[in-house]
Amino acid sequence: MLxxxxxxxxxxxxxxxxxxxxxxEDVRTAIFVKGTHxxxxxxxxxxxxMALKRPAxxxxxxxxxxxxxxxxxxxxxxxxxxxxANKNDASLFxxxxxxxxxxxxxxxxxxxxGRVLDMLEVGVEGFTGIADxxxxxxxxGHKPLMHFASELFDTHPRFMQLxxxxxxxxxxxxxxxxxxxxxxxxxxVSLAPTPPSLNTTSDTPTPLPKVHLRTYTIKLLSSGTRxxxxxxxxxxxxxxxxxxxxxxxxxxxxxxxxRKPKMKKKEVEQGLGKKxxxxxxxxxxxxxxxxxxxxxxxxxxxxxxxxxxxxxxxxPGKRSKTSS
Length: 324
Known about the structure:
Elements: H1 10-18, E1 30-34, H2 40-53, E2 57-63, H3 74-88, E3 92-97, E4 105-112, E5 115-128, E6 145-149, H4 152-155, H5 157-170, E7 185-191, E8 211-221, E9 229-234, E10 238-247, H6 251-257, H7 265-269, E11 279-281, E12 287-289
Parallel strand pairs: 1-2, 1-3, 6-7
Antiparallel strand pairs: 3-4, 4-5, 5-10, 7-8, 8-9, 8-10, 11-12
Subcellular location: Nucleus, Nucleolus
Region (Disordered): 260-324
GO molecular function, one term: rRNA binding
């Protein structure tokens, strides 16, 4: 069961109302937490990822003894994450931890209702920073264009979770329209060659392919037409990652997180929400429907009875010409 917090005064009620689920959610705030041991590579990765996430990013400068996946300290780590999430109104965490068994580990944690929803750990095996590439950079705070170049992101459960986590992490403000120069950079996520045994059902464990994350700036050039020619310039960071531990979301909590509010009557009339058959909205915004009926026999159609429509023989008191 999800918890319910009752406000004690008007001020706390306004704070809780601001954190209530909305039809259009605000930008997700991410907190970057360093573990007890982080090397130079991991510090550079977290610094560059925070540069892509800004301004919705909070960095903890001090090191913290936090291990979200370890069973011995799971309660302490979970309570710390929940405390930080409620205090900073954040729903995403990126925890960096490096040890001998799992070097250069990044743990993505997603929260819902102040509690941990799911977690995903990746290991960084290759890194090229933003400062290493002397190329133009994008403006901080701009919404990126996400590109996932593999069918496994829609079929394999582990890569589906990775795609959902990255979309939640880098998705910026919800916008209806955007001009073409407003898209300044692209985050492309691809996979290494997929082993053939991964696409078949076999009992033997198959190592998952590596994940390649690349960031490019978009350069618009003249093409002689209205559509410009697009070139991608490497901006950084560039990451080569492997999937490690993960924790799936609880079914009941995930159901609550994916629940959508009922749409208003005005929005349904405008054609939003579920598409109804034979209903459309014209240019004036009026809702029009089409009704299909079966073939009608007009001879059997019931009309209004009038004396003028009857035959002379059927009229009472009327003599025929032959009888006179």
